[in-house]
Write a structure and sequence with these properties.
mainly alpha; globular; Farnesyl Diphosphate Synthase; single chain; 14 helices
């Protein structure tokens, strides 16, 4: 077993699952753009929010790597990217310690955000950290009960966008909360294709995701529904609520073009072939966040 130093930083980058980190980046970009449009942009707070969001997601990914290994959910039959603990690249103790280090860093940044935003930000931070650990940890892990989508939709969606907007403007508004449903839904699509890929292994190891509970076809429908409504439906709702263009053509046309490839094979491919769909969906979420920010500021 490796001591985690031979491959150095590459092991920890692998375990951080960089292709999924758009789920934490996109909502911060969106909330920041909305704050900027309303005259509340605060550069230092925006940067601290972005770093804190990414760190919390990395903490969740490290914890997932650690707890899945302890629960025996990662086996030799795994079709997704290599898990650092299960493959022996690091020991369980090292992964646990790395999780705690990243948690500590996020808490340090969080202190500044709490100082600026008060108890609402404290509540968001504490709940985010707790549920990040409970996703695969504890006696009733959310991811093992088919409740992962609820956590992802809420915390990578309305909480992330609305919280980003609030900590800069110090004001809650409905529009950023509604806008947050878009990245939340696309993040659910990432989870859906991930669970669709792993459905057979999860079934064998007792991980009762929605794909396991309701079947592969359900997971495909979930993926397409979340992806399309996140990319198209929520921007249209925002257009109706706001009554202004805000670069709506950029919002609608570019993400639509990008979403064609991931959707094409979702009902026909299985197993390892879905890794490309997973990566494409992650890229689509980042693109959506960027295009939303540009479009909202136009």
């Amino acid at each position: 077993m490796s001591d985690g130093t031979t491959l150095g930083w590459r092991v920890w980058l692998l375990a951080a699952r960089p292709k999924t980190l758009g789920a934490s980046i996109a909502p911060v970009l969106m909330g920041t753009a909305m704050a900027c449009k309303d005259g509340g942009f605060h550069a230092l707070t925006a940067l601290a929010t972005l770093l804190c969001a990414v760190l919390i997601q990395i903490e969740a990914n490290y914890a997932n790597d650690y707890f899945d290994f302890l629960k025996g959910a990662d086996t030799e039959a795994r079709l997704g990217p290599t898990r650092a603990t299960a493959s022996g690249l690091v020991t369980p103790k090292q992964m646990r310690n790395a999780t705690l280090v990243v948690l500590g860093l996020s808490l340090l940044l969080g202190l500044y955000l709490v100082w600026r935003g008060g108890w609402p930000i404290l509540s968001i931070g504490v709940l985010s950290v707790i549920f990040a650990a409970l996703y695969t940890g504890g006696p009733y892990p959310l991811g093992y009960l088919g409740l992962g989508e609820i956590f992802v939709l809420i915390f990578f969606g309305p909480v992330a966008v609305g919280g980003t907007y609030y900590v800069q403007t110090l004001e809650w508004r409905l529009l950023p909360t509604v806008a947050g449903l878009a990245p939340g839904l696309i993040a659910c699509a990432i989870l859906a294709v991930n669970n669709l890929r792993d459905v057979e292994e999860d079934r064998r190891t007792g991980k009762k995701t929605l794909a396991v509970r309701f079947g592969a076809r359900f997971a495909g429908i979930e993926y397409v529904s979340c992806f399309c409504f996140g990319l198209l439906g929520i921007p249209l709702v925002l257009r109706l609520l706001e009554g202004k263009s805000h670069g709506i053509l950029i919002l609608l046309l570019l993400p639509v073009v990008f979403c064609v490839a991931p959707i094409q094979g979702i009902f026909h491919e299985q197993g390892e072939a879905l890794n490309k769909r997973l990566a494409s969906t992650g890229k689509a979420l980042v693109l959506f966040g960027i295009m939303f920010a540009i479009g909202w500021l136009l």
